[in-house]
Amino acid sequence: MGDILFVTWDGGGNLPPAIGIAAELQHRGEIVRMLGHEQQRSTIEGAGLRFEPYSHPYTYSTTTPEPWLRWIRGFQAIINDRSLGLDLVGSVQREPTDLVVIDCVLRNVLRAAEQSQIRRAVLVHSFYDVAALGMGSNWSIARLRGRSSTQRWREVEVGLIATLRSLDPDGQKTLPDCIRFTGPVWQGTPRSAKQPDGEPRILVSLSSAFFPGGSGFCRTSSTR
Fold first, then answer.
1. Residue 223: how many other CB atoms lie within 10 Å
2. Domains with residue ranges and CATH for the chain
3. What are the DSSP E strand ranges found in the chain?
4. What is the SS3 assignment for 67?
5. Which of 1, 20, 78, 215 has the fewest C-beta atoms under 10 angstroms from its C-beta?
6. What is this structure's pTM?
7. pLDDT, tens digit (0-9, with 9 covering 90-100), for 155-213
């Protein structure tokens, strides 16, 4: 039995895979807690998981309607928020922690874990290339400095990609050895891949985050 800390943020669709994996680990007897934004408390605690809030986070949610420029600035502020990394280190210092599972876009949390030599895994809540937002956004600069673009992957225990390898655009490429495709992460009882009449069940989604024009696009599509 181990102590596992999940580090997340209020990004909409990034949370369900984290909760699903955390809940399964807890079911298997691990001691699990989740560090996140205060507005995530009810969802996390509602799943039966222990919640720990950030101390001084930048308040932001990708699901809140905002003008496009403000949305981009808010997202950049979150992934570069240094206080989140400090909260990670503080949490690990306060309580026994065998492994930290970090959302892939939390750049400064990843950096803080690396600098503090904390044993860590990275959770990619969509496709493999989403990890570039946090782990690889400076890969071109890193290569100019002689650092391998996959070096940060080699420094983690495991990279969890919450999709099927066959669906990931990078799935057929040679990926770092630590990468594991978990397949879809369900909360609760998984639904059948087929409908009662035998036809395949297909889920179509644009994004769990707010994008200007997204709701209008959905309304237009639904009338066709």
1. 6
2. 3-188 (3.40.50.2000)
3. 3-7, 31-36, 50-53, 99-103, 120-124, 159-161, 179-181
4. coil
5. 1
6. 0.82
7. 888 999 998 899 898 889 888 889 999 988 877 666 666 778 878 777 666 666 666 66
